[in-house]
Amino acid sequence: MTHRIVIVGGGAGGLELATRLGKTLGKKGSASITLVDANLTHIWKPLLHEVAAGSLNSSEDELNYVAQAKWNHFQFQLGRMSGLDRETKQIQLAATLDEDGRELLPARTLGYDTLVIAVGSNTNDFGTLGAAQHCLFLDTRKQAERFHQQLLNHYLRAHAGDQANEQISVAIVGAGATGVELAAELHHAAHELAAYGLDRIQPKDMHITLIEAGPRVLPALPERISVPVHKTLEKLGVTVMTNAAVSEVTADELRTSNGDVIQASLKVWAAGIRAPGFLKDIDGLETNRINQLVVRPTLQTTLDDNIFAFGDCAACPQPGSDRNVPPRAQAAHQQASLLAKGLKARLEGKPLPTYAYRDYGSLVSLSRFSAVGNLMGNLTGSVMLEGWLARMFYVSLYRMHQMALYGTFRTLMLMLGSRIGRGTEPRLKLH
């Protein structure tokens, strides 16, 4: 019987792994590869802040799982994992409902010989009072599009009214990469919306507040990166609040533990991560306090050799450190590459390779205004980048992701098509 490899989660890591395995094991018939995801399409998660601001039209940059499966010799199953039976080697998929709440696909089970879980992470609101009810999150394309629609609705209402110089206030909780990039992208969107005639709200009348519980923006990155980013944000007119932990969110405002009150009509929570709740102690597997599956350096779960996990949903140790691998896109990409080799070795009865995280640096985009980051390598050490060059490297990260999925030729065609389309489409999504 053909070895069954089931990959749950079609994010950057899971989709890259399914594509790589399909091109090798699937094409040769050495194994059957099945990718499971709750959505029909994929969009690179680091782009969601651009979808939220309207700078990116998600329908143009999405990838269809069914088509990708056909092109790369794997199968796709639409569904959301809800349970696991390790004894029978089956996962449970919840029923899929259509927009009217009617059952589209029934609850069902799917058998595996090797299971890979790559379901990513969700934003962690840390149980903050009112956050879940009054804040928007940017974990999925639908959430990002919801934010964009609410932003656009403010402008449309103002445009239809008779009062000049109306205002809009946006509060972003969390000054990590997502929060920082969203703040800059919203400032850019304000200028674009005014240029297209929605000028009852002028750029200076969009008040953006970025709130960080820690002492500086981009707390996970070196201070030499966070300092110029902080200065650039302030030049753009973004109000940056540090050492300000949000304690409560209401319909119209946020309150911090030190007594500050921030008025906001749009509120985004972009602080912290946790793995999806269904993973917590799923069928006895070891998990940590944020629901991540604990794995060994081989990326196998600690209690089951047939189950692997990687990316944001996995707690993977770093050799020589008491910390786990950080939840970053480059880690998921590295782990997908390792697993593509490791699962092939497993079928051949060879030892599994082990994973050691390599930090190649960090890049943060500040929309068209700037980009800041550092590149790390064995020969160059750590090289600081700013401005146009940093922006080019930032864009190249997405192109590398596309090459892993489409190959070089198709990626070049996508780049060419995007270039041609710039002159025939608005610079901002206006619907």
TrEMBL record:
Its cofactor is FAD. The keyword Nuclease does not apply. GO terms for biological process: aerobic electron transport chain. Its EC number is 1.6.99.3. Gene3D superfamilies: 3.50.50.100. Belongs to the NADH dehydrogenase family. This is NADH dehydrogenase. It comes from Pseudomonas wadenswilerensis. The lineage of its organism: Bacteria, Pseudomonadati, Pseudomonadota, Gammaproteobacteria, Pseudomonadales. The gene is ndh.
